[in-house]
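For anyone still unconvinced, we reproduce a single protein record, the chain in one-letter code, the fold tokenised, and leave readers to judge:
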Amino acid sequence: MKSPLTGMLALLILFVSGTAQAAVPGITGPTFNLVASTGYISQPDGQMVYAWGYGCDGSPAGFAPAAILGANCDPMQIPGPTLIVTEGQTVTVNLRNNLPAGAGNTSILFPGFQVTSSGGEAGVLTQEAIPGGSVTYTFTASSPGTRTYYSGTRGDLQIEMGLFGAVIVLPSSVPANCNNGLAAQNLAAEATWGEADFRLAHAAYDHPATCYDREYLFQFSEMDPAIHKQAEAQSGIICTDHGGCLQVATEPYRPAYFMINGRSMPDLMDPNYAPHYLHQPYNGNPHLHPGELVLVRVTGTGRWQHPFHEHGNHLRTLARDGNLILSQSDPTKLAGPLLFTTTTTPGQAYDGIFQWTGKGLNWDVFGHGYPGDTSVCVPDSNGYYTSVPSAINYYEWCQDHNKPLEKAPFGSVGSGGPVTLPDPNIFTNGIWYGGSPYLGPDATVRSVGTTGTTPPSGTVANSPSSEAAFGFMWHSHNERELTTDNIFPGGMMMIMLVDSREFVIDESK
């Protein structure tokens, strides 16, 4: 069953591919100097919202992936810096409290790790940094995976204000199969077109079934602006009580902003480290080629559960909170569920694999069969064309090769077209639609033949020779969360782009 928005926005459209990429930007350790500070974050409705966030206290040891341009780490950002470490490392996090005195103490919890702390003063859950003071946390990155970190001091206020982030632990070794066989062919396919490798590692875990080709991190959160306004109004209060003096009502809770990586749609599609989002450095814009195994890292923060739907295919869950889901009868095999909608409980993290191949659509997404086309598709044991990584249609589902889109076309692909335009309830025929249902810069030629004209599409914003992709909407299934202050579209939604091989996905910008 699809959501009511599926026909309108779940998309299969031909989409302009000029948007920024995502990857998993963060800072490297194993020692991190963080500070909790104040600032303002922007929303698509033009509001600047007072908030608190973790940031870098001075320059970090380094940024990853190193090739992403313009990397920076402000003293306040939402979410906090993504902390990237390697399994087995001893991790040290020094936290300085630069919040207003009225906020009182602050701290960080690192669920899933055995943490020792020093400095500060004892709190209910951990050692806390007093106003103007510091505290140090130390733990061993005992196992790979994605996890959260967040304030352990008055969580109803401090987490709501923005004090949260993610920890990514990379495996200390890479399973052998992640560097040979099909994994090596996928790398060769990228290299054919001069595409760089922006992964943090070749596997998510110390397990041969966790190899991946591309990765993204999505941190879900919501925000009630009434709470932030109260905190801002009292930010100058004089206070000597380390427990804090702010009288902020956190109930009833009525969030109006819903964010992924600290931004709402359409801001999510702007580049990482865009200067106009000083305190919101991370975007959310998944982009992939057919057949690639995409590691999706997700954390939930705040109070609400966020049911999220990744259109285009189900997502295979690998692990939750850094714990692989293994078969009880055979621990060498993964047993995570294949989910239509992934659920994200506050404080929880999960890792999953998403793959789009075109299988099941029952038509040739590459539009082969036009006059002069000599493309072939030789299936491997799984039915995909993987023997020639340099082919434009690498990883094509061969059963649909040279199969026209139309069930009964009046002008088939093989005869030179034109194709029958698709049902507007299935394909979005809007400003970005290029007039062709196929992938690639020559998609129009593939649909109409060498002598045809651009099919009528209402508004053709794409040049017939420009790059285009299939776009799928990824969004919360709590449909209120697709709004910004109750205005649609906004909130927790983004566009996942599937592009043909010859288009280079450049994660550096």
User: Anything to note?
Assistant: The helical segments are 6-9, 155-161, 181-192, 225-233, 443-448. The chain has a mean pLDDT of 87. The domain at 26-171 is CATH 2.60.40.420 (Immunoglobulin-like).
